[in-house]
Amino acid sequence: FDKVMEHTREVLQRLDVSRAHIVGHSRGALFAARLALEQPERTRSLVILDTNTLAPEDPDFPSGAFYADLERRMPAGPPTPDSARMEAVANSYSGEHVTDDFVARMYAIASLPKTQDARERMKSLNQGQWTLGLNRRREETLRTIEEHGFSVPTLMAWGFNDPSAPLHLGLRLLDLVTRKTTRTELHVFNRAGHYSFREHVDGFNRLLAGFCLGEKTDL
Protein backbone atom coordinates (compact mmCIF):
# COMPACT_ATOMS: atom_id res chain seq x y z
CA PHE A 1 0.00 0.00 0.00
CA ASP A 2 2.73 2.46 0.93
CA LYS A 3 4.57 1.79 -2.33
CA VAL A 4 1.43 2.52 -4.35
CA MET A 5 0.89 5.74 -2.40
CA GLU A 6 4.49 6.73 -3.06
CA HIS A 7 3.97 6.01 -6.77
CA THR A 8 0.76 8.11 -6.82
CA ARG A 9 2.41 11.12 -5.22
CA GLU A 10 5.37 10.83 -7.58
CA VAL A 11 3.11 10.71 -10.65
CA LEU A 12 1.34 13.91 -9.58
CA GLN A 13 4.70 15.57 -8.96
CA ARG A 14 6.15 14.49 -12.31
CA LEU A 15 3.03 15.72 -14.11
CA ASP A 16 3.34 19.02 -12.23
CA VAL A 17 -0.19 18.74 -10.84
CA SER A 18 -0.33 21.36 -8.13
CA ARG A 19 -4.04 20.94 -7.25
CA ALA A 20 -6.54 18.38 -8.49
CA HIS A 21 -9.98 16.93 -7.95
CA ILE A 22 -9.23 13.48 -6.54
CA VAL A 23 -11.67 10.68 -7.38
CA GLY A 24 -11.30 7.21 -5.86
CA HIS A 25 -13.48 4.20 -6.68
CA SER A 26 -13.69 1.00 -4.63
CA ARG A 27 -10.23 0.21 -3.22
CA GLY A 28 -8.97 3.38 -4.88
CA ALA A 29 -11.11 5.41 -2.47
CA LEU A 30 -8.69 4.58 0.35
CA PHE A 31 -5.78 5.93 -1.71
CA ALA A 32 -7.77 9.05 -2.60
CA ALA A 33 -8.69 9.63 1.05
CA ARG A 34 -5.06 9.24 2.17
CA LEU A 35 -3.95 11.76 -0.44
CA ALA A 36 -6.61 14.26 0.66
CA LEU A 37 -5.60 13.86 4.31
CA GLU A 38 -1.84 13.99 3.74
CA GLN A 39 -1.77 16.69 1.06
CA PRO A 40 -4.90 18.86 1.36
CA GLU A 41 -3.06 21.70 -0.35
CA ARG A 42 -2.91 19.55 -3.49
CA THR A 43 -6.57 18.46 -3.26
CA ARG A 44 -9.34 20.70 -4.57
CA SER A 45 -12.08 18.22 -3.75
CA LEU A 46 -12.46 14.56 -2.87
CA VAL A 47 -14.91 12.14 -4.50
CA ILE A 48 -15.45 8.71 -2.92
CA LEU A 49 -17.25 6.05 -4.98
CA ASP A 50 -18.68 2.69 -3.90
CA THR A 51 -16.01 1.50 -1.51
CA ASN A 52 -15.94 -1.43 0.88
CA THR A 53 -12.24 -0.83 1.55
CA LEU A 54 -12.63 2.65 3.07
CA ALA A 55 -15.92 1.99 4.87
CA PRO A 56 -15.87 0.85 8.51
CA GLU A 57 -15.66 -2.93 8.77
CA ASP A 58 -18.96 -4.79 9.07
CA PRO A 59 -18.63 -8.30 10.55
CA ASP A 60 -21.79 -9.34 8.68
CA PHE A 61 -20.17 -8.35 5.37
CA PRO A 62 -16.38 -8.65 5.79
CA SER A 63 -14.03 -7.04 3.33
CA GLY A 64 -13.19 -9.24 0.42
CA ALA A 65 -16.08 -11.68 0.95
CA PHE A 66 -17.71 -10.84 -2.38
CA TYR A 67 -14.48 -11.26 -4.34
CA ALA A 68 -13.48 -14.42 -2.50
CA ASP A 69 -16.79 -15.98 -3.49
CA LEU A 70 -16.36 -14.75 -7.07
CA GLU A 71 -12.86 -16.24 -7.20
CA ARG A 72 -14.22 -19.62 -6.09
CA ARG A 73 -16.72 -19.53 -8.95
CA MET A 74 -14.13 -18.60 -11.58
CA PRO A 75 -13.34 -21.48 -13.95
CA ALA A 76 -9.86 -22.94 -13.56
CA GLY A 77 -7.24 -22.38 -16.21
CA PRO A 78 -6.24 -19.39 -18.33
CA PRO A 79 -8.61 -16.41 -18.74
CA THR A 80 -11.44 -16.60 -21.25
CA PRO A 81 -13.94 -14.01 -22.53
CA ASP A 82 -16.56 -15.56 -20.21
CA SER A 83 -14.33 -15.28 -17.16
CA ALA A 84 -13.46 -11.69 -18.13
CA ARG A 85 -17.18 -10.90 -18.16
CA MET A 86 -18.01 -12.48 -14.80
CA GLU A 87 -16.82 -9.79 -12.40
CA ALA A 88 -18.40 -6.88 -14.27
CA VAL A 89 -21.76 -8.66 -14.55
CA ALA A 90 -21.71 -9.84 -10.92
CA ASN A 91 -21.01 -6.29 -9.74
CA SER A 92 -23.73 -4.64 -11.82
CA TYR A 93 -27.45 -4.05 -11.49
CA SER A 94 -27.83 -4.47 -15.23
CA GLY A 95 -25.36 -6.08 -17.59
CA GLU A 96 -26.23 -3.72 -20.43
CA HIS A 97 -23.02 -1.72 -20.02
CA VAL A 98 -20.92 -4.91 -20.22
CA THR A 99 -20.67 -4.79 -23.99
CA ASP A 100 -18.77 -7.19 -26.23
CA ASP A 101 -16.17 -4.47 -26.81
CA PHE A 102 -15.75 -4.00 -23.06
CA VAL A 103 -15.33 -7.75 -22.54
CA ALA A 104 -12.83 -7.98 -25.40
CA ARG A 105 -10.70 -5.25 -23.81
CA MET A 106 -10.88 -6.85 -20.36
CA TYR A 107 -9.97 -10.23 -21.85
CA ALA A 108 -6.99 -8.71 -23.68
CA ILE A 109 -5.74 -7.18 -20.43
CA ALA A 110 -6.29 -10.42 -18.49
CA SER A 111 -4.34 -12.36 -21.13
CA LEU A 112 -1.22 -10.21 -20.90
CA PRO A 113 1.72 -12.14 -19.44
CA LYS A 114 2.40 -9.32 -16.97
CA THR A 115 -1.23 -9.46 -15.77
CA GLN A 116 -1.05 -13.20 -15.19
CA ASP A 117 2.31 -12.82 -13.45
CA ALA A 118 0.86 -10.15 -11.18
CA ARG A 119 -2.11 -12.37 -10.29
CA GLU A 120 0.21 -15.22 -9.35
CA ARG A 121 2.37 -12.96 -7.20
CA MET A 122 -0.70 -11.53 -5.46
CA LYS A 123 -1.83 -15.02 -4.48
CA SER A 124 1.22 -15.29 -2.23
CA LEU A 125 1.30 -11.64 -1.12
CA ASN A 126 -2.40 -10.97 -0.67
CA GLN A 127 -2.95 -12.34 2.85
CA GLY A 128 0.46 -11.28 4.05
CA GLN A 129 2.28 -8.15 2.98
CA TRP A 130 -0.50 -6.54 0.93
CA THR A 131 -3.51 -7.15 3.17
CA LEU A 132 -1.66 -6.33 6.40
CA GLY A 133 -0.44 -3.01 5.02
CA LEU A 134 -3.83 -2.18 3.54
CA ASN A 135 -5.72 -2.90 6.77
CA ARG A 136 -3.23 -0.91 8.84
CA ARG A 137 -3.64 2.17 6.65
CA ARG A 138 -7.39 1.69 6.55
CA GLU A 139 -7.65 1.74 10.35
CA GLU A 140 -5.37 4.79 10.56
CA THR A 141 -7.41 6.59 7.91
CA LEU A 142 -10.74 5.91 9.60
CA ARG A 143 -9.38 7.18 12.93
CA THR A 144 -8.13 10.36 11.27
CA ILE A 145 -11.47 10.90 9.52
CA GLU A 146 -13.31 10.43 12.81
CA GLU A 147 -11.03 12.81 14.70
CA HIS A 148 -10.43 15.50 12.07
CA GLY A 149 -12.51 14.86 8.97
CA PHE A 150 -11.49 16.15 5.55
CA SER A 151 -10.53 19.79 5.06
CA VAL A 152 -11.72 19.72 1.44
CA PRO A 153 -15.24 19.42 -0.05
CA THR A 154 -16.16 15.73 -0.10
CA LEU A 155 -18.69 13.96 -2.28
CA MET A 156 -19.75 10.35 -1.83
CA ALA A 157 -21.58 8.56 -4.65
CA TRP A 158 -23.04 5.07 -4.39
CA GLY A 159 -25.02 2.52 -6.34
CA PHE A 160 -28.20 1.62 -4.46
CA ASN A 161 -27.83 -1.99 -5.60
CA ASP A 162 -24.07 -2.39 -5.12
CA PRO A 163 -23.44 -6.07 -4.23
CA SER A 164 -19.76 -5.79 -3.24
CA ALA A 165 -20.00 -2.48 -1.32
CA PRO A 166 -23.62 -2.39 -0.08
CA LEU A 167 -25.18 1.01 0.55
CA HIS A 168 -25.37 0.47 4.31
CA LEU A 169 -21.55 0.56 4.35
CA GLY A 170 -21.68 3.90 2.57
CA LEU A 171 -24.12 5.23 5.16
CA ARG A 172 -21.78 4.13 7.95
CA LEU A 173 -18.92 5.92 6.24
CA LEU A 174 -21.10 9.00 5.69
CA ASP A 175 -21.90 9.13 9.40
CA LEU A 176 -18.18 9.12 10.16
CA VAL A 177 -17.24 11.72 7.54
CA THR A 178 -19.99 14.22 8.33
CA ARG A 179 -18.97 14.57 11.99
CA LYS A 180 -15.93 16.68 11.16
CA THR A 181 -16.18 17.47 7.43
CA THR A 182 -18.02 20.73 6.83
CA ARG A 183 -19.03 20.20 3.21
CA THR A 184 -20.14 16.60 2.64
CA GLU A 185 -22.66 15.29 0.13
CA LEU A 186 -24.02 11.85 -0.69
CA HIS A 187 -25.61 10.93 -4.01
CA VAL A 188 -27.24 7.53 -4.52
CA PHE A 189 -27.91 6.11 -7.98
CA ASN A 190 -30.92 3.82 -8.09
CA ARG A 191 -30.65 0.65 -10.19
CA ALA A 192 -26.88 0.79 -10.10
CA GLY A 193 -24.26 -1.61 -8.83
CA HIS A 194 -20.57 -1.16 -8.10
CA TYR A 195 -19.94 0.71 -11.36
CA SER A 196 -22.53 3.47 -11.07
CA PHE A 197 -20.40 5.69 -13.32
CA ARG A 198 -20.84 3.14 -16.13
CA GLU A 199 -24.50 2.35 -15.51
CA HIS A 200 -25.48 6.03 -15.19
CA VAL A 201 -22.94 7.79 -17.38
CA ASP A 202 -24.80 11.06 -18.03
CA GLY A 203 -26.03 11.43 -14.45
CA PHE A 204 -22.60 10.70 -13.06
CA ASN A 205 -20.90 13.21 -15.35
CA ARG A 206 -23.41 15.92 -14.40
CA LEU A 207 -22.90 15.13 -10.72
CA LEU A 208 -19.12 15.37 -10.99
CA ALA A 209 -19.17 18.55 -13.07
CA GLY A 210 -21.58 20.22 -10.68
CA PHE A 211 -19.66 19.28 -7.54
CA CYS A 212 -16.08 19.71 -8.73
CA LEU A 213 -16.41 22.55 -11.22
CA GLY A 214 -19.54 24.28 -9.98
CA GLU A 215 -21.14 23.98 -13.40
CA LYS A 216 -24.88 24.52 -13.66
CA THR A 217 -26.49 21.67 -15.54
CA ASP A 218 -30.02 21.03 -16.78
CA LEU A 219 -31.38 18.08 -14.82
* Helix vs. strand class: alpha/beta
Low-confidence stretches: none
Major sheet description? 4 strands, parallel
- What's the shape? globular
Q: How many individual β-strands?
A: 4
Spatial order of strands in the largest sheet: 1-2-3-4
Overall pLDDT score: 92
Tell me the series of helices and strands, N- to C-terminal. Answer: HEHEHHHHEHEHH
Percentage of helical residues?
40-55%
For the record, give the distance between the C-alpha atoms at the N and C termini, rounded to a whole number: 39 Å
Radius of gyration, in Å, reads: 18 Å
Task: Describe the model.
By secondary structure, this protein is an alpha/beta fold. The protein is 55% helix and 11% strand. It has nine helices and four strands. Strands 1-2-3-4 form a four-stranded parallel β-sheet, with helices on both faces. Helix 7 links the parallel strand 3 and strand 4 (184-189). Helix 2 crosses helix 6 and helix 4 (81-90) packs across helix 5. It is globular.
Write the layout of secondary structure elements.
Blueprint: H1 2-14, E1 20-25, H2 28-38, E2 43-49, H3 65-73, H4 81-90, H5 100-111, H6 113-148, E3 154-159, H7 167-178, E4 184-189, H8 196-199, H9 201-213
Parallel strand pairs: 1-2, 2-3, 3-4
